[in-house]
Amino acid sequence: MSNPRDVAVLVGSLRKDSLNLKLAKALAELAPSQLKLEVVGIGQLSHYNQDDDANPPAEWVAFRDRIRRADAVLFVTPEYNRSVPGVLKNAIDIGSRPYGQSAWDGKPGGVISASPGNIGGFGANHHLRQSLVFLNIPVLQQPEAYISGVDKLFDEKGGIANDSTRGFLSKYMATFATWIERNAAK
Predict the structure, then answer these.
(1) What is the Cα–Cα distance from 47 to 74, expressed in whole angstroms?
(2) pLDDT confidence of residue 119
(3) Which of 67, 76, 100, 117 shows the smallest number of beta carbons within 10 Å?
(4) What pLDDT is recorded for position 64?
(5) What Cα–Cα distance (Å) separates residue 108 from each residue in 113, 131, 150?
(6) What is the distance between the alpha carbons of residues 95 and 160, in angstroms, rounded to a whole number?
(7) Taking the CB of residue 141, how many other CB atoms lie within 10 A of it?
(8) What is the pLDDT of residue 2?
């Protein structure tokens, strides 16, 4: 088998005990062997300001370079006020600029939203998809992934305790691997 596909995982929460970060780590364990998931930190990114495009901060340059190296991107996010957390939107904006030089262009993507609530981050999932379409990220459409009850999802080792959810997420990751192969630059 050739080298696994490099998947940059962006987590929309900065909290030390983030449930979405736990989910991202569990997804790395569930991913098929043809994928290598790596969480890419976004907490170090200063607020995007177009005035800085001519002389961008080093953390912007490093972030953009990391996204460009990735074969695909996976967004794992909570929902804040029925939308995308500001820190995630900021990272998306930084990666998309300067205009015409987007690091996201053409990268296959996936979105998983997770929340303790019953609708599993539905609003964040769909708002995020709107931005990704504009950025020319072909986003996996089915299965959609809204994970509710994420606060009760993990076992003591950080794995997915619920068999049904583990099976669903394993299927999602297998489908995502196929999506990447279908849409990745050759």
Answers:
(1) 22
(2) 87
(3) 100
(4) 98
(5) 17, 14, 25
(6) 31
(7) 11
(8) 78
Ranges of the chain whose pLDDT falls below 70: 1, 186
Return phi, psi of residue 72, to 5°. -160, 170
Could you tell me if 150 and 15 are in contact, meaning their C-beta atoms sit under 8 angstroms apart?
no
Residue 183's pLDDT is 96
pTM higher than 0.85: yes
Q: Which strands form 145-148's sheet, in the order they lie side by side?
A: 35-39, 5-11, 72-77, 109-115, 145-148
Q: Does domain 5-183 have CATH number 3.40.640.10?
A: no
Residue 59 neighbours by CB under 8 Å, 6+ apart: 44, 45, 46
Question: Which residue ranges make up each domain of the chain?
Answer: 5-183
Q: Is the CA virtual torsion 137, 143, 147, 153 positive or negative? A: negative
- The string of DSSP letters for 123-160 reads HHHHHHHHHHHHTT--B--SS-EEEE-GGG-B-TTSSB
Q: How many CB atoms lie within 10 A of CB 93?
A: 16
DSSP per residue, 170-185: HHHHHHHHHHHHHHS-
Compute the C-alpha angle 161/167/171, nearest 5°. 140
